[in-house]
Input
Amino acid sequence: MPELPEVETTVAGLRSVLEGAVLTRVEARRADLRFPIPVDLRQRLTGATVTALSRRAKYGLIDTDRGDTLIFHLGMSGRWRIDPAEIGAHDHLLIETGGGRLLSLNDPRRFGSLDLVRSEAWEAYSPFTRMGPEPLGPDFTPDTLAAALKGKATSIKAALLDQRIVAGLGNIYVCEALNMAGIAPTREAGKIGRARLILLVEAIRDVLAAAIAAGGSTLRDYARPDGELGYFSKQWRVYGREGEPCHCGTPIRRRVDGGRSTFFCPKCQK
Output
């Protein structure tokens, strides 16, 4: 599933084409993805001008001058394509601009979503109401993380995947950050001391920033809107590297928790 860096990269790619553009054609080519697509989406977006693009957790937001915000989630296999050579069966939303550009939201597995809300109320959008702070934002600090983890007996890996603790993190980048911070994924979340939380917050920020700079990680269907692949997978410290040596020389291990693979170094991470 595309995680925060992939969505950030996607939004940046869309911004270069959509910001300031007039939407001359908006066509939903099916009635639903994971959830129903708003029936008035075409009416409300056609003729509107895009004023801004942003991201919240793993969601992209496209604002218009009509006070509407299109919220998209890429699900398991979704990606935007800019000026595709041809339109296929899995291109479920088409957008044309006054500048002659064509964008398509392609989602073979249809686990993504599209919704349209009033811009002044996007923070009240149901998935956002209980989300924690953005990991790259000013509200994510060792103190706020310590407060969110207080008393939690769950593992630190599971806690960081909880969107109520911190928004936008997923399996790849949690594995990478825990390795960088030297924290075992099975450590009890509520018992990690402040000094180690300082390292963890820094590691999360560093891993996400490096992934965004590399265009994200390429997993199965993910690619940037311009068709280029993300290259952060070349920099993975532990993820997907079971049996390969950690930088310390110890073979990386994998365990499965809740159906998800966790990659870690048994020597570096305590």
